[in-house]
Design goal:
There is one protein chain. About 35% of the residues lie in helices and about 20% in strands. By secondary structure, it is α/β, with parallel strands linked by helices. The strands form 3 sheets. It has a 10-stranded mixed beta sheet with strand order 3-4-5-6-9-10-11-12-13-14, covered by helices on one side. A two-stranded parallel ribbon has the order 1-2. A two-stranded antiparallel sheet has the order 7-8. The longest helix has 18 residues. The termini are far apart.
C-alpha cells in the first residue's frame, strides 16, 4: 500500500489529508507541530494524538527524510549535505552560520536547465524537479540535525534561501507549498523577510509568486545589457532585462521587503568594467526599481572558461555603485574549501536533457564571450 509522505503537505494539505481519515482540523495542526517543530517521524511518539489516529497514520502515512550521501564541514563552520533523491540523482543543501543568523541554502531541482555560464550546476544539466517533500526535507533534516549537533533546544535556522541547485520558479507547484510550510508558525515560523527565492528571471512566475506567496526575492542579473546577459544567462533571450525589471517592480507591491536584491557574479574582463557599473546605474534609474546589489566573487571551475575578478576591481565596482546611491554589498565567500560556495553546487545528477552537450554546441556556433587575462591592478583607495 502506498503511504503519503507528510513532508509533502503544507498545513492546508495536511488538514485535507486528515479529513479523509475522518479527523478534525486541529489534529492536523498537532501533527504538523510534531513533524516540523519537534522533528518526529515515529507516530508512536506523538502522545497527544488519539491512539486511533496514530493507528490510522501507521498504515496511511510516513515522514520520510532524504538519505544523506555525504556531509562535509568547512573550516568556517559551513556544512554541506549531499542528499540522495533516487535514480542516481542527488541534491545539495548548505548551512551557513553567522553571528546573527543561521542560513540554509536549499535546492529545488536535481540539476538545472537554465545553463548559466558561471554555474557548475548548470553545466551538469537537468534531471528532474524535486517534490515539495524533497524540498522541505532538506530543512527538516538540517534543522533537527543542527539542534543535536550544536546542543541547542531553540531554532537554529533563521533564514532560508532558495539558491541551491535548480531554478525555483521552474518548479512552482512544488515550491509554493514548501514556502508555506517554512513560513507557518506551527512549523518553522520563518519571517517572509527571511525566506528568499532566487530566480534567473522567469517573469510570469514572478508575478504568480507575488500573488500566491510573496517572500523576499533575489534576481540573478549578472549583466547590465541584453547582449551580455544573453550569453551569461540564456533565459534572458525569452525574458529580456526590461521585462524582468518591470516584473520586479510589480513584485515589490506585494513583497515583504521594499527592495529586490540583484545578484551579480563578478567575472574577470567580462562584466566587471567601469562601463558595466555605469550601465547598471542607468538601468535601475531608468526602470525605477528599488534594489540593492550583491556582488559575488566567482568560484571558478574548469568547464566555465571564466576567471574571478581581482578583488581591487570588485571593490572599485562596488564603490561606483555605492557612490551613485545604490546599496551594494560584496558577498563573503563561505565554504569554498568544501565546494559549497555560490555557483559550486553540482552534486551527482543525470543529464537527461543533454543540457551540457547543447551548451557546448551553442558556444561553438555563437559569438563567444571575450575573456581577458587577469591583470595586476593597483589597490583602490576607499
Amino acid at each position: 500500500m502506498t503511504t503519503a509522505n507528510l513532508l509533502d503537505f503544507d498545513l492546508e494539505g495536511l488538514a485535507a489529508f486528515c479529513e479523509k481519515l475522518g479527523e478534525k482540523r486541529f489534529r492536523a495542526t498537532q501533527l504538523f507541530r510534531w513533524v516540523h517543530q519537534r522533528g518526529a517521524s515515529d507516530f508512536t511518539q506523538m502522545t497527544d494524538l488519539a491512539k486511533s489516529l496514530r493507528e490510522k497514520l501507521a498504515t496511511t502515512a510516513r515522514v520520510e527524510a532524504l538519505p544523506v550521501l555525504t556531509q562535509h564541514e568547512s573550516k568556517d563552520g559551513t556544512i554541506k549535505w549531499l542528499f540522495d533523491v533516487g535514480d542516481g540523482n542527488a541534491v545539495e543543501a548548505v548551512f551557513i552560520p553567522e553571528d546573527d543568523r543561521g542560513t540554509l541554502c536549499v535546492s529545488s531541482q536535481a540539476g538545472c536547465a537554465v545553463g548559466c555560464r558561471f554555474c557548475s550546476t548548470g553545466h551538469q544539466g537537468f534531471s528532474r524537479n524535486l517534490s515539495t517533500g524533497e524540498i522541505v526535507a532538506q530543512l527538516w533534516f538540517a534543522e533537527h540535525f543542527l539542534r543535536k549537533h550544536l546542543k541547542r533546544d531553540e531554532r537554529v535556522i533563521s533564514n532560508v534561501v532558495m539558491m541551491g541547485m535548480g531554478e525555483p520558479l521552474q518548479n512552482y507547484s512544488a515550491l509554493v507549498p514548501a514556502l508555506r510550510t517554512m513560513l507557518d508558525d506551527n512549523a518553522y515560523g520563518l519571517s517572509r523577510r527571511r525566506v528568499t527565492v532566487s530566480t534567473s528571471g522567469v517573469v510570469p512566475m514572478i508575478d504568480r509568486l507575488g500573488a500566491d506567496c510573496p517572500v523576499a526575492m533575489a534576481v540573478s542579473l549578472h549583466a547590465p545589457n541584453d547582449a551580455l546577459r544573453d550569453d551569461l544567462v540564456p533565459l534572458n533571450r525569452k525574458y529580456p532585462i526590461a521585462e524582468l525589471l518591470e516584473a520586479c517592480k510589480r513584485y515589490l507591491v506585494h513583497a515583504p521587503r521594499d527592495f529586490i536584491t540583484f545578484e551579480y557574479c563578478m567575472l574577470d574582463g567580462v562584466n566587471d568594467q567601469p562601463e558595466h557599473a555605469k550601465q547598471l546605474i542607468e538601468l535601475v534609474r531608468t526602470h525605477g526599481v528599488s534594489c540593492k546589489f550583491n556582488l559575488i566573487p566567482f568560484n571558478p571551475f574548469p568547464a566555465s572558461g571564466l576567471l574571478r575578478s581581482p578583488q581591487p576591481r570588485v571593490l572599485a565596482f562596488a564603490k561606483t555603485l555605492s557612490e551613485a546611491g545604490l546599496v551594494t554589498t560584496v558577498r563573503k565567500t563561505r565554504g569554498d574549501d568544501i565546494d559549497a560556495a555560490c555557483g559550486q553546487l553540482a552534486g551527482d545528477v543525470k543529464d537527461r536533457t543533454r543540457a551540457a552537450e547543447r551548451m557546448a554546441q551553442r558556444r561553438a556556433t555563437e559569438r563567444p564571450i571575450v575573456l581577458h587575462p587577469v591583470r595586476k591592478t593597483a589597490p583602490q583607495e576607499h
